[in-house]
Amino acid sequence: MHSPDEAAPLYQRIFLLLPQEPGLTLPALPRLHLCERALLQELHQQRQNSLQPGEEGGVGDPHLLGIFLQQGREQDIYIEHYLPRDLFQAVVAHELAHAWQAWQGLEGLPLMVGEGFAEWTAYHVLQALGEERMARRLLRRRDLYGQGLQRFLTLEQQQGRAAVLAAARGSLPL
């Protein structure tokens, strides 16, 4: 997305879609910031440095495209600008899933759970938006994000969406 004016309607659309697909409700829309990759990496590093011993942070990723941050009730999502539309939508859905996790009070989840659930959310949002090519791209990932997505999709297929939400909350093993 090239500008906030271009990104804002897509961001709002995904926020409004989440309660229907995949069934996540957020009480407030986090503020959206389009930024340079260098700022994303700096914010990621700051978050890593602020974690308490034993807490898990994100994966060190040279291809970091977005980050969700919360201070108190204030929530912000930073996304690299100039992303193609389909990739922007995937990143938005992924980061809004992290916002949902924060509203649920889910902190310190294992990376497989936190990131896998966020990818599961992005996958379903992309399908609902008709972005099949990008949804298939998520399925081809072999890293921790892709492994988590596969686990959540398998759980959904075997036990349904309620089991996915229970696993996302950490009350059902993944």
TrEMBL record:
It comes from the Bacteria. This is Protein DA1.
